[in-house]
Design a protein that fits this description.
CATH topology of chain B: Four Helix Bundle (Hemerythrin (Met), subunit A)
Oligomer: heterodimer
Strand order of the largest sheet of chain A: 1-4
CATH superfamily of chain B: Cytochrome c oxidase, subunit III, four-helix bundle
Shape of chain A: globular
Low-confidence stretches of chain A: 5-10
CATH topology of the largest domain in chain A: Cytochrome C Oxidase, Chain A
Structural class of chain B: mainly alpha
Shape of chain B: elongated
Number of strands of chain B: 0
Number of strands of chain A: 4
Structural class of chain A: mainly alpha
Largest sheet of chain B: none
Number of domains of chain A: 3
CATH architecture of the largest domain in chain A: Up-down Bundle
Strand content of chain B: under 5%
Radius of gyration of chain A: 24 Å
Number of helices of chain B: 5
CATH superfamily of the largest domain in chain A: Cytochrome c oxidase-like, subunit I domain
Low-confidence stretches of chain B: 1-34
Chain lengths: 585, 219
């Protein structure tokens, strides 16, 4: 491997505990910090969903936190809101992009760190503050907000009068989100600059691993989307605290109190701003998973990615179209049928690049010598969930069908499969794949496979039946349906879902055990345990402080040179000098 | 007697190594800033970053602009009010500051450190004057009984001027940083930093012209 000295530019490792592990400038430490922030958040979010599932099936169950032991409808809504907000922002946005992106991206492009390490540290700690502020909503007078993760006004804008949690709790929620926007903008700027300007010699755009492409496109989406959410949050805060009427219409009467001090505002304006951010946000969650799935499928099928350029083009198209389809969340909000038609066509167009990606994943697998590692299983699971969740998107994209399906469990099933669980499978795949590099030890494969099968079957058992609930007209966000006779026969479906959720959530404890056990007692990992090609496998596991110990490798070929005829091994690392390709390495 | 180049400014050829060109490595790399304890990066990365930051800021203000247009178009309660006359003066001050910052920047590029500091100082003073002028405009409106929550038109006026003012205060901080920081131990050169601050400053100037036009024509 030919390297070039970086001319004394490399930095020296910090020595104190605080600078090394807390306020670290090292992208690897920051990546792991993000990962653990997301890990904490995902278990918190899961606990909230478990409480919701228990309440839906056993409404009289005594729950520890509820006064008198009974959950009120408002408390149920608070759980809905916080589950969604924590999962979307603190898990799906942080782990795949800020977590793995931070750790892996600089190494894969041959950089010693992100372009702006101080900014990187700031974005992590800003994210941490936003998590603290968001979770603090639980402890405000009235508790957490009840307006859902989309916080539609006027419910979210009028304050305490609209319900418990709509006072200080909703305020903390809005502030927490605004802080999160700032953190994400800093992160996006750092990711794009690093990818554009810090690639090593020979790492042309066409040789970048698809993970890098995915993180780059995700960062671009973040840069364009989070500023819009920030603006919306500021307007909402002013409506709540300064008496303005951006979103609050006149003539409202809330629990017999006429609202006379607001008039003329447009609740639709919030929906436009929120979903202009919110739809790209869906792709911010899923695109890194697409990158990881492509990368892992190729590695363990021992074949190049089928249609590399098409994959890049498809991800770019998905990213671009993501900004043109926000209206499909608003079909029943009072939209001109012509606009709805345009949004509908644009939305269904996303099916084209999505189908290209799926076709190419299958093409990558076709005829490969497939190794069923746990990382591979989760990547395959990602493809499966992406297809299942994506297909129901085509139903919801049609205004005529959406009139019926909107705000039913059909939507819950759709977005959990594609945005929630598929993205989580991407995170799991990345975890099992890069764990050896990050911690220098292997994760336990048999336990990992047990975790995969329980989770894979479990999530299908949870979310597939929700399609039928939705088709039967079951509305989402209802804490109690005992008053609606037509929903009574569906109780057994709810019962099945709750049992499946309990088993699936328990299975995540297996993952947690595997993660921590392997961190300390796993089998020692070699530098390149998967016989993979990209630069992170050219350095020790775990990597030294400045990644390449001052000798950054050059790159001579694309990222997926597997099973090349004439090579001595079935993989050719990106950094291997051409003269050595025919010889042992 | 012409001023001389401050010795700690190093002139870097931007980005001759990184960025993935070519197949074969050449020797040598990087611009070798090692004093800060952080890895060296090509100076052009800073220009990439400032452009990206401006893209983010554009999206932020475009979201507010479309809110302005939607709120005005959908609501039936929009009441126009006369914009304070001092805004025209403020606009001239800000336009003037774009000229002075350009003069300062060119002095720095030519190595005239003292002239650079003088014009850089003028620019900061004009920036402070602009912000003070905006506060005068606010007081003027308040004296007429027009406050933040009076009408959506005034809400947007206060909001947009406040957010632009905050961004400009950030610019003034950046100017002070460029003027007073010690450059011996930094990854970024003073020339680059001054270029970045100028780009940001011109952008804030242009943004104000846009917002002023929006507030004036859309009132």
């Amino acid at each position: 491997m030919v390297t070039h000295d970086t001319g004394g530019g490399h930095h020296h490792p910090p020595t104190g505990f605080i600078r090394k592990y807390v306020f670290s400038l090292d992208h690897k430490v920051i990546g792991i910090q993000y990962y653990f922030l997301a890990l904490f958040s995902v278990f918190l979010g899961m606990a909230l969903s478990l409480l919701m599932r228990i309440h839906l099936v056993w409404p009289n169950a005594k729950l520890p936190f509820a006064p008198g032991g009974q959950m009120t409808p408002e408390q149920y809504l608070a759980l809905v809101t916080m589950h969604g907000s924590i999962m979307v922002f603190m898990v799906l946005t942080t782990a795949p992009q800020s977590g793995f992106g931070n750790y892996i991206l600089p190494i894969q492009i041959g950089a010693e760190d992100m372009a702006f390490p101080v900014l990187n540290m700031l974005s992590f700690w800003t994210t941490f503050v936003s998590l603290v502020v968001l979770v603090s909503a639980f402890f405000m007078v009235g508790g957490a907000p009840i307006s859902g993760w989309t916080a539609y006004p006027p419910l979210s804008a009028l304050g305490q009068i609209t319900g418990p949690g709509e006072g200080a709790g909703q305020t903390m929620w809005v502030i927490g989100l605004a802080i999160f926007c700032a953190a994400s903008l800093m992160g996006a700027l750092n990711f794009i600059t690093t990818t554009l300007d810090l690639r090593t010699k020979g790492m042309t755009l066409g040789r970048m691993p698809l993970t890098i492409w995915a993180w780059l496109i995700t960062a671009i989406l973040g840069l364009l989307a989070f500023g819009v959410l920030l603006a919306a949050c500021i307007l909402l805060l002013l409506d709540r605290m300064a008496g303005t009427s951006f979103f609050i219409p006149g003539g409202l009467v809330v629990t017999d109190t006429p609202i006379t001090w607001h008039k003329g505002g447009s609740p639709l304006l919030w929906q436009h701003l929120f979903w202009f951010f919110g739809h790209p946000e869906v792709y911010i969650a899923i695109l890194p998973g697409m990158g990881v799935a492509s990368h892992v499928l190729s590695t363990f099928a021992r074949k190049p990615v089928f249609g590399y350029r098409a994959m890049v083009a498809a991800m770019s198209a998905i990213g671009f179209l993501g900004f043109c389809v926000w209206g499909h969340h608003m079909f029943i909000s009072g939209m001109s049928p012509y606009s709805a038609f345009a949004f509908s066509i644009m939305t269904m167009t996303i099916g084209v690049p999505s189908a290209i990606k799926t076709f190419n994943w299958l093409g990558t697998l076709w005829g490969g010598k497939i190794q069923f590692t746990t990382a591979m299983l989760f990547a395959l699971g990602f493809v499966s969930l992406f297809v299942t969740g994506g297909l129901s998107g085509l139903f919801l994209a049609q205004p005529s069908l959406d009139l019926y399906l909107h705000d039913t469990y059909f939507v819950v099933a759709h977005f959990h499969l594609i945005m929630g669980v598929a993205a989580i499978f991407g995170i799991f795949s990345a975890t099992y794949f890069w764990f050896p590099k990050m911690f220098g030890r292997m994760m336990n494969e048999p336990i990992g496979k047990a975790h995969f099968w329980l989770t894979f079957i479990g999530v299908y058992c949870i979310f597939m039946p929700m399609h039928f609930l939705g088709l039967a007209g079951h509305p989402r966000r209802y804490s109690d349906t005992s008053g609606a006779n037509f929903l009574a026969p569906l109780h057994s479906v709810h019962y099945f879902i709750t049992i499946a959720a309990m088993i699936t959530i328990t299975a995540q404890l297996i993952f947690l055990f595997n993660l921590f056990y392997s961190m300390f007692a796993g089998e020692k990992a070699t530098d390149n345990p998967w016989h993979a090609t990209t630069l992170e496998w050219a350095i020790p596991s775990p990597p030294p402080f400045d990644n390449f110990a001052g000798h950054v490798p050059s790159v001579y070929r694309g990222a997926y040179e597997f099973s090349v005829p004439g090579a001595t091994e079935d993989y050719i690392p990106q950094h291997l000098v051409p003269e050595k390709v025919g010889k042992a390495y | 007697m012409p001023e001389t180049l401050t010795p700690d400014i190093e002139i870097i050829e931007p980005g001759h190594v990184h960025g993935g060109g070519g197949d074969v490595p050449a020797g040598g790399d990087d611009d070798g800033d090692s004093g800060s304890g952080l890895p060296g990066i090509p100076q052009r990365a800073y220009f990439t970053a400032i452009q990206l930051a401006l893209v983010g800021i554009v999206m932020f203000f475009m979201a507010l602009t479309s809110s302005f247009l939607v709120r005005k178009g959908l609501g039936d309660d929009w009441v126009a009010f006369g914009l304070p006359r001092v805004l025209w003066l403020n606009t001239l001050v800000l336009l003037g500051s774009s000229v002075t910052i350009e003069v300062a920047r060119r002095h720095l590029h030519e190595g005239f450190a003292a002239a650079f500091r003088r014009w850089w100082g003028f620019t900061s003073a004009l920036g402070v004057l602009f912000v003070a002028g905006q506060l005068v405009a606010w007081r003027d409106l308040a004296a007429q009984g027009v406050f933040l929550a009076t009408n959506p038109s005034s809400s947007f006026f206060y909001l947009l001027t406040a957010l632009h003012g905050l961004h400009l205060l950030g610019g003034i901080l950046a100017l002070s940083y460029v003027a007073f920081r010690r450059w011996q131990r930094s990854r970024i050169t003073q020339v680059t930093a001054a270029d970045l601050a100028s780009i940001y400053w011109h952008f804030m100037d242009g943004l104000w012209l846009f917002l002023f036009a929006l507030l004036y024509l859309g009132r």
